[in-house]
Amino acid sequence: MANKERGEVTFEALGKPWTMKIGTGAMCEIEGATGKSITEVGQELGNPKTASLTLMRAVFWGALQDRHEGTTLKECNAIIDDIGMQRAGVLIGEAFQLAFPQQQKEGATRPPKATAA
Description:
Layout: E1 8-13, E2 16-21, H1 24-34, H2 38-46, H3 53-64, H4 73-83, H5 85-99, H6 101-106
Antiparallel strand pairs: 1-2
Helix pairs in contact: 1-3, 3-4, 3-5
């Protein structure tokens, strides 16, 4: 069961439950996979001109590693295909919002909601 207080987002795909979280480990994985800071990633995903499927999949993959370590990019393809790109974007957006709750309250710049590319 997801714990939103801990930044977890759950969903069902491929007939089983999944939990994503953009915590410190996920941020490091995402930065390593993309070569961009987590802030840059959030900004690019939030802009339809810079959002890409590759970037979205990298974030989705990184966010799964905490609870589903070893999930591959190929498995992420299947999960995203199962739930749809729009739903995947919404889940990423929720995970980003939970990862940066204080910044939202203060109105500070934060990674924006992910949009489907």
